[in-house]
Specification:
alpha+beta, four-stranded mixed sheet, 9 helices, about 40% helix
Amino acid sequence: MSKTFNKMISVIVAFVMFFVCLSAFPVRHTVNSVGGAEVDCEIVAETMAARINEEREKLGLQPLKIVPYLNVLSELRANEIAELYSHTRYDGTTIEDIIDTEIVDYCWSGEILGRGTVDIDRMIDGWKYSEEKHWDIVTHANATHFGMAVVYMPDHPKKWLWAGILVETFDHEDVQDQRWPLENAIAPEYCGDVSGDGVIDSFDLVMLNQYINDSLFFNTAQLEAADVFDDGIITRVDATALKMYILGEVDKLPVTLEMLT
């Protein structure tokens, strides 16, 4: 009887903690997607940048470093193509005219544009098969740095608008404030630690449920940590498995079917 009572108390405490965390957990600046989910455009753009580097490395090309200044220009261009989807701007200028060489001194530049989806795989495929040869720019052998942006315009027929600016610096010199994509992003070390704070607790359960409910975006590392049931997909089964671990009903992660039988 005592054992059953203690278990009931543990469950009640866990649920109370869950709802307290849900109301107190900090939310990043987001925008509503077409389906009503909230998506952090900066994280999506960073994730795309990391994915581009993965594609370049598959081809034996050097990865590119993000430059915040080029991110700003990319966001400017993403907003501009809402009215004119072209590499030529309204005033007849191009990206070569707007990059300040005092900030980024370059010998080559290229621009990639896209629209209509927030899905990274679909956008990558769009660039690969683009008639405008966007993929030639993405895979430019000597490129060194880039910026990436995606904006959401709910009233625009295409909704999602992408722009990326790639450059090659003279002698491949470094650029001020350069960094690797997702360098400052959440990087979980353990299965279940989706918050990346090194502790598996109710905060992770809150975030996992938010992701499952399409109200939070996870980067690639978080998706790997979120697969608590180790079946290659993220569902409510993972949330249940994580809750079992937090309550002490299983003693390790990931949870497997064999552990439950």
